[in-house]
Each structure stands twice: as C-alpha cells, then as structure tokens.
Amino acid sequence: MAGTLVPTLVLPLLLVAFIILRLGMQIAFPIERGLVFPMALVPGLWGLWNMLWEWSHEHTHLPVGIHGAILPLLLMPAGATVGTYLGILALGAQGVTWFQDVYVPYAWIAPCFLAALAGYYLAWKYIVGYVNRMLGIA
Amino acid sequence: MKSREQGFGNREQKTEIRDQDADRIKQLLKRAIPRMGDDAELDRDLWPAMLQRIDHENVRRGARIPWFDWALAGGLVAFAAIVPRTIPVILYYL
C-alpha cells in the first residue's frame, strides 16, 4: 500500500489535466492512450517494488531511497515500449515526440533520466519510507 | 421411459451431492473464520497512538534533511523550470 500511494496521489492530477485539456480546451492529444501506463501499470509496479524492498531489505540493507531510484531503470524502457505500441511516442532521427506534440531531443534524454532518478530517490526516501514507517513496515 | 427415469435419478443424485458439498464448505468456512460476536468494537482507540507516531516521525524527519537532498530537490525544480515541456513526460512515469 505504501508503494502505491505516490502514483495514486498523482492520478487525480492526471485526470484533472485530462479533463482540462480534452474537454475544456478541446486539444486533440491521444491522452486516453497516454493514461494507460501511469494509471494501470505504474501504481502496481510501485507496490511490487516496495514489496520487493521489504522482502530483500534484511539481506541487502539498501536504503529505500536508493532502492526506489533503481525503479526508473525498469520503468523508462517499459514506458517507452508501451508508449511506442500505443502510438503516443514516436522515435525520430534527432529526438522523440511524446503525445504527438512534446518534442524531446535525444540530448535531453540523459538529463530527463537523471531528473527521474532524483525525483524517484526523493519520493521513495521521504514519502514511501515515511508511510512504511507509519505502517510499521520499516 | 426407463431411461428417462434413470436420467431423473442421476440428476437428483448429482443435486444431492452438490448440496452435501455446499454444506461441507459452509461448515469448513464457519470453522475457519472466527465469530465476530456481539462486541465487535476494539477495546482501545488506535488513533491517539497513530497521532503520537506521526508527531514523533515529523520531529525526527524535520531535524535531519541532508543538504544533498535539498540540492536534488532544487535541481529538479530548476530542471522543470528550464525545460517545462518535459513535465508531461515526467508525469507519465508517476
């Protein structure tokens, strides 16, 4: 449960963004397809990752923040694969196009990945770790 | 005629066996799940203990957030401010 908390908190924000962009501003993004990964897969993966930490913590003694920062290594290729199959990510010669609109040059992929690592590290250390302690898991 | 009677007999037998199985499962479930009884309330309030734990955790956490974590958080905010187009991509992974 502690692991699924953060993505579950982000979900209402995504839904609000969806309602504003699609129903309010009538923007023709493929948003529904873009929501499949964050709504259906990410919360479950966070929960499983937290269960894996609880199971392996006694042997590895890995801090929860570091454990969480490893997750983007799996999520990024998985998300890119799902995005490509759903048609929300297009690979180009110079960069990738997300949601048929957001163009990210390949040079920016590494900084994006580092930002994801940092974000995941902080979220897992301060939110997942906190909830784990509150629930008496850690 | 005889085969029809036999068919009815088989069907009744099957229904009887199914009923017996259902009764057996009911008995097993009753035995496995403890009875709640009339007094299903907890004998103490758990919320004050939870509040105490939250307070204790907040004091502990607020006292020691390393500078490195502040720097990371600042870097993240700066990154989002410099390249705001990456925000939907980052949200996609949350």
Summarize the structure in words:
- The complex is a heterodimer of chains A (138) and B (94).
- By secondary structure, chain A is mainly α.
- Chain A has one domain (2-134).
- Helix content of chain A is 74%, strand content 8%.
- Chain A is built from four helices and three strands, in the order αααβββα.
- A three-stranded antiparallel β-sheet of chain A has the order 1-2-3.
- Chain B contains four helices and no strands.
- Chain B has helices spanning 2-32, 47-63, 67-82, 87-92.
- The interface between A and B is medium-sized, with 34 and 22 residues.
Question: What is the global morphology of chain A?
Answer: globular
What is the chains' assembly state?
heterodimer
> Structural class, judged by helices and strands of chain B?
mainly alpha
Tell me roughly what share of residues is in helical segments of chain A.
over 70%
Secondary structural class of chain A: mainly alpha
Overall pLDDT score of chain B: 79
Which protein chains make the most extensive interface, counting residues with beta carbons within 8 Å of the other chain's beta carbons?
A-B, 34 and 22 residues
The number of strands of chain A is 3
Largest sheet, spatial ordering of strands of chain A: 1-2-3
Radius of gyration of chain B: 32 Å
Largest sheet: number of strands, sense, barrel closure of chain A = 3 strands, antiparallel
Number of helices of chain A: 4
Order of helices and strands of chain B: HHHH
Number of helices of chain B: 4
